[in-house]
Amino acid sequence: MKVVVSSDEHTHLVQALLAELQARGHEVDYLGPEKGEEADWPLVSLEAAQRVARGEASEGIVMCWTGTGATLVANKVPGIRAALCPDAETARGARLWNHANVLGLSLRTTSEPILKEILDAWFSTPFSQDEWNRKQIERIREIESRFAGG
Q1: Which of 25, 45, 67, 99 could in theory staple to 104 by disulfide, Cβ–Cβ 3.0 to 4.6 A?
Q2: Rounded to whole angstroms, how far apart are CA atoms 35 and 37?
Q3: Residues involved in catalysis
């Protein structure tokens, strides 16, 4: 699976994430600075979300210090359902009930062991296909289309 990853800083967590994704057999595109440099989180998060929305990547992972800003920006892109996930259970729920296609992570609070648990839950949880959940996702799409172009 092709995964696009963005971050505004190149921290140990970024390096661990890139290595973990490659070890799991994913093709990874990294958008962000090299070690010791910085990038603007709105710009790298937007580019990552747009690549997912255009189908250039199957999934996205966006990161900033808290993860909040990167997740907010990703959610501005139509068709993106980004979820800030501090733990595996939140990641599982985001996939199952919200059909999240972009994972938001905090560079500050995500430890390497928790990162692996989050990735396990994220990649192993399919989108729910029951009628109620499909209806909720359709409601999200309706809301999105109502505010498109605004």
Answers
A1: 67
A2: 6
A3: 64
CATH of 2-147, one of 3.40.1400.10, 3.30.2130.10, 2.60.40.10, 3.50.50.60: 3.40.1400.10
CA–centroid distance for 84 within its chain: 8
For 139-142, the CB contacts below 8 A with 24+ separation are 140/81
Digit-coded pLDDT (tens) for 21-57: 999 999 999 999 988 888 999 999 999 999 999 999 9
Helices and strands, counts by H and E, the chain: 6, 5
Give 27's strand partners. 2
pLDDT on residue 65: 97
Q: Where are the domains of the chain?
A: 2-147
DSSP string, 50-63: HHHHTTS-SEEEEE
Region class of 142: left (phi > 0), else alpha (psi between -120 and 50), else beta: alpha
3-state SS, residue 113:
helix
Q: What is the pTM of this model?
A: 0.95
Length of the chain: 150
- With tokens 């990649």, the residue in question is 123
Instruction: Say which DSSP state 39 is in.
Output: -
Residue type for 87, please? D
